[in-house]
């Protein structure tokens, strides 16, 4: 059975996300690729997540990102793909905020990008996504764990900024 990247630091970030969402009456959605649903697992493990978490889309193959999440043609380990994924998650899941991530978990490169390359996007309904590029070191599990933590932190920060 595969390991989970849900960790104590992720739990703390999810608790902060829950506090913000409930205090502001917001809903949240996710769209993820390289993490294969681990971000959704981390969020849905929160006791009260059903009150504010709309759900997540795991779009692992490029065709799914292009077809379902409106990723632009071409490579999918890109900032425009992360932005399209976040924008689509807000729309498809009717959420106030979404976070999306796409990247290369490893162990080897993909699409000319080295392992550990990750693009994260946060989006608020009716606004343009913010995208950040991250590089994580280590084995695939370390990359996935870093990606989940970064996605949660970016979403908390985006909601905090309003």
UniProtKB/TrEMBL annotation:
To which species is this protein native? Arthrobacter woluwensis
UniProt protein name = Nicotinamide-nucleotide amidase
- Which Pfam families does the annotation name? CinA (PF02464)
What InterPro entries does its record include? Answer: CinA-like_C, CinA_C
* Top-level taxonomic group: Bacteria
NCBIfam families given for it? PncC_domain (TIGR00199)
Describe the location of the CinA C-terminal domain by residue ranges.
12-157
Please spell out the taxonomic lineage of the organism that makes this protein.
Bacteria, Bacillati, Actinomycetota, Actinomycetes, Micrococcales
């Amino acid at each position: 059975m595969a390991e989970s990247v849900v960790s104590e630091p992720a739990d703390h970030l999810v608790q902060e996300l829950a506090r913000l969402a409930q205090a502001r009456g917001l809903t949240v959605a996710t769209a993820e690729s390289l993490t294969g649903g681990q971000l959704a697992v981390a969020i849905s493990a929160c006791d009260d997540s059903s009150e504010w978490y709309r759900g997540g889309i795991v779009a692992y193959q490029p065709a799914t990102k292009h077809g379902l999440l409106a990723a632009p043609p071409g490579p999918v380990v890109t900032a425009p793909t992360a932005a399209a994924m976040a924008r689509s998650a807000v729309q498809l899941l009717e959420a106030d905020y979404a976070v999306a991530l796409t990247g290369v978990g490893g162990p080897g490169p993909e699409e000319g990008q080295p392992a550990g390359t990750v693009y994260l996007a946060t989006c608020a309904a009716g606004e343009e996504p913010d995208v950040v590029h991250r590089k994580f070191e280590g084995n695939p599990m370390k990359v996935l764990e870093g990606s989940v933590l970064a996605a949660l932190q970016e979403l908390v920060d985006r909601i905090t900024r309003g």
